[in-house]
Design a protein that fits this description.
Organism: Chryseobacterium taihuense
Distance between the termini: 145 Å
Keywords: Signal
Structural class: alpha/beta
Strand content: 5-15%
Number of strands: 9
Protein name: Cell wall anchor protein
Radius of gyration: 35 Å
Shape: rod-shaped
Number of helices: 5
Largest sheet: 7 strands, mixed
Strand order of the largest sheet: 3-4-5-6-7-8-9
């Protein structure tokens, strides 16, 4: 009799515990509502839903989306199999979104380009086609793209008025003489301030900075052209005066 009473108390206690944890009807048709936070496979309760492991969502067509869990190991220590069109994978400190890769075994990836279709680091850096965005010269960048970008418009913000090159037209701008420019080119083999071929290959170029620099060189070229035009007009005037004197 005591055993029956104990079992009954346990059943009531478990039912009470369940009612405290979950809200909604206890059937297989209605939604299940949870007032608190849910943790599966982990004691982490920082968010509404905390998951350590894989989450598989299967649609009507049979395709699946796999969310990989774990802090150090990638999705699946065995063959993932035909899991659908896309995978979300947490590998180390990077999150990947990539098309399905057949016969994917952990770190053995038959097509790394597919795996790196989209990658995001723990610091918020995003890579497309690459996950190589941690380097000594990469701290000032947020988006890394391999191969190329095709778009209709690109707008680059200019931080301040002095960031543009119109200061070349200021009256006090020191324009290098053509003689000095010729000497520089003969010695260095490139225009002043413009990176050499080796420097461009080794370090790449800053698109905004290079456009501003090219504008600066165009404006300097405009000043040279205007100077030469002025000299030509003065020479023509002298020639006309000499011709008048000769005709007399």
């Amino acid at each position: 009799m005591k055993k029956i009473a104990i079992l009954a108390i346990c059943a009531l206690f478990s039912n009470s515990l369940f009612s405290q944890q979950w809200n909604g009807a206890a059937n297989s048709t209605d939604h299940i509502y949870r007032n608190g936070k849910v943790s599966i496979g982990t004691d982490n309760n920082n968010d509404r839903l905390n998951l350590n492991g894989n989450f598989r969502l299967t649609g009507n067509s049979g395709n699946k989306i796999v969310f990989g869990g774990g802090s150090t190991s990638p999705v699946g220590s065995t063959t993932v199999g035909d899991d659908g069109d896309f995978h979300f994978e947490l590998n180390g400190f990077k999150l990947y979104l990539h098309p399905y890769v057949s016969a994917y075994f952990g770190d053995i990836d038959p097509n790394p380009q597919l795996k790196n279709a989209f990658a995001m680091g723990s610091t918020g850096i995003v890579g497309m086609g690459t996950d190589n965005f941690y380097c000594s010269q990469c701290s000032g960048y947020r988006l890394f793209v391999k191969d190329g970008i095709r778009t209709e418009k690109v707008k680059v913000e200019i931080a301040a008025n002095n960031g543009w090159a119109d200061y070349v037209f200021e009256k006090d701008y020191k324009l290098m003489t053509l003689r000095d420019l010729q000497s520089f080119i003969d010695e260095k083999g490139h225009l002043p301030e413009v990176p050499t071929t080796d420097e461009a290959i080794a370090n790449g170029i800053e698109l905004k900075e290079m456009n501003i620099l090219l504008l600066k060189k165009i404006e300097e070229l405009t000043l040279y052209t205007l100077q030469q035009q002025k000299n030509i007009e003065e020479q023509n005037k002298r020639i006309e005066e000499l011709e008048k004197k000769l005709s007399k």
